[in-house]
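Bug: token stream looks shifted between consecutive jobs. Job 1:
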Amino acid sequence: MRRHSILYTSIFILLAGTVAAQDTKPPENTVSSEIEVVRPYKPILAEAVKLRRSPDLDNLKAYKAKFSYAPIERKLELNTDIQKLQAQKLAEQAPTALTNNYLKIGLGNFTTLNAEGYIATGKDEALQSGLFFKHFSQSGSLNKQNENSQQISAFGRSIGEKNTLNGRLNWQRHGLYFYGFNPDNPDANPNPENQTLNLIEIEGEIAKRFSDDDNALRYATKANFYLFNDRFNAKENLLSISAYLNKKINTFNTGLNAAIEMGSSKDSLTSVSNHLIRLNPYILLEPAGIKITAGVQLVQEFGDNTNTRIFPAITADFTLIPDYLQLFAEVKGDVNRNSLKNLSDENPFLNSNILIKNSVEKLTISGGIKGTGGPGFGYKARFYSKKITDMPLFVNNYYHFNKFDVIYDFGDTQLTGLEGEISVQVSDNLKWTGRLNIEDYKPASEQQSYFKPGLKVSSNLLYTINKKLSFHADVLIQDDSKAKTYIMMPQPAPYPLLPYYVNEGIVNVKGFVDLGAGATYKINNKFAAFLTINNLLNTKYSQYLYYRVNGFNAFGGINYSF
């Protein structure tokens, strides 16, 4: 009972105090605040259950996994060779349009007209054919200083399994006037005569294709026939056939070069039959770094004149530094067949009834160096000495100063010369070539070797700025030469063997510098514009006495490729 009384009394006191607190009002001017006391949280962890026994280190029983397998029976292969890689196929590309054909036309001062074209078959290398044509005409400032030339040439080529066939048909025409002008006598040639030189030529060749077999027989043969005539009565024909054989026997090669030339020249007062047979048997030795060809040159002249001549034919090449430095030397002799065509190609202002005879190179000795100095650089330098019998020379005719006769330096002319060539290609956009010739003539009977300059320099530069614009420049330098004139009427013979100095005079023909330049601008893939300038220095020089060339001249036009 006592315990219950205490409990009830406590509950009553607690309730009474609560009611009293609610009814009591806080006094005015007091601050009421609530204070919350927070203590740092201190977690209490239960004591960890500890293992009261140590691990058994003596238990060494291994775990054995259970598995099953079945061996595969397979043959062991040894594959130590390099396996062939499978090439990745490239995506198909559209075929490139060929532009190996072109048409070109240009106009310029001196009423210059230039037209040319080239048309060929497609890209089949085994069968090719084409056609080339060209026309050029120009009229200078002198009386009848007119010149024109035309050419049409067709060719064909077939490459078979064993042989290669080549053929060519050519027609050329060269029209001009004997416009020779003498400043000391301006009225000496009031009505220059017209001259026309015509050539028809056909050529064929068969050759064995290249073979890697060193023991294979190598051969080639070539035939050429032409008809040549001028506006007057000069006519000439020539049939030439040449052949080549080579066969390797043991450690050396043996071979034969053979040729026959059968030709005749006719004019109103002259008629010459001039034939040649050449035989050149040789042996070729090629030890390490050395190449020696030893043989003889047998030449038989027949026709109006008959002679048999034997000359040495020896060449040697020594490689000191492969591709960079090579020495070469040559000892040879030959008979040079002079013809109306060859003489007219050199000087088209020939007189009628020209005397035709052969010249003989009794002995020619030459040697030099050649090689490369790296990619894009090549060079060659050669020294030579020749002894020439009956060397042909041009002289102005006494009665017609504007026409040239051909005389022969009776005896042995000694010629010593030095020539050099350099080719430099810096890149695909820049290329330069240069050539130098220095010659010294010691005539046999004549006072001078007429129209034979002692120095000739030629150079060519090609520069491509970009895909559309390119330039080129050319220069030709020639030293002074000498010309022969007659002071009095010569001896009453068409071509005296020995000169008569009393009747002769020597005239100096000044040297010259001829500078040319040009540019090509590619408009698109089909059309291009070009400009060519000749004789930039406007030098009115003469290559032959009384025949002054045109001064500054330029022509330009359009080139169409398809």
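Job 2, same session, no restart:
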Amino acid sequence: MTAPDQVILTYRDTLWRLSPPWLQTGLAQRILYSIAVQLDAAGDALVAGVKLRFPNLYSAESLGPIGKERRIRRGLTEADAPYASRLIRWWIDHRTRGGPYALLQQLFYHYSPNTFPIVLLYRSGALFAMDPDGTITPNVSVSRDVAQWARWVLLYFTDQVTMADAEDLKIIPREWIAAHCLGEIILMPPGARLWGYPRGRLWGNSEQWGSGADGGRIPVGG
């Protein structure tokens, strides 16, 4: 890192200093300057190109391409600084890709700061509930049916999204759920409660898993 009192010489300054006196003035000086200034521009571009590879080190303009390369999608209203922090730790996040915690964390970042309760249910009986503050609580007391573990459902308890947002709602689950799993998203009103689960896999008191109206259901392929 350059010290505050360190003088940085450009190519045009250096070339002028190393030139004989008869090249330091007049037309000769202007010709040398026009050549050296191109070297300075090339040097600046080289430094910028290297720095752009690092999130938010040189310019926020590179966050989009870096995020695409690292497969970390930017949140709907996410600012530059927090997104850059996530891009820096991208390898850590990808280590748990396909698991419930990684999926719910990415959903939290995607909708932050307008977060809402989200519940991830596997048909096997495993349940993971995420509060609006990002706290994830697993339900370890439910019975598990190993034969059905690859089926899942995400319940969004919010009125901020609708069926019109279906394509956006699918993005994060498609990218972060295990590739061999199949599931769906169900939109629930704020404050709604899921009764009678997992006993008999009942929705309410009468509807079985996979039945009922399709108005709030968004299928998500693996």
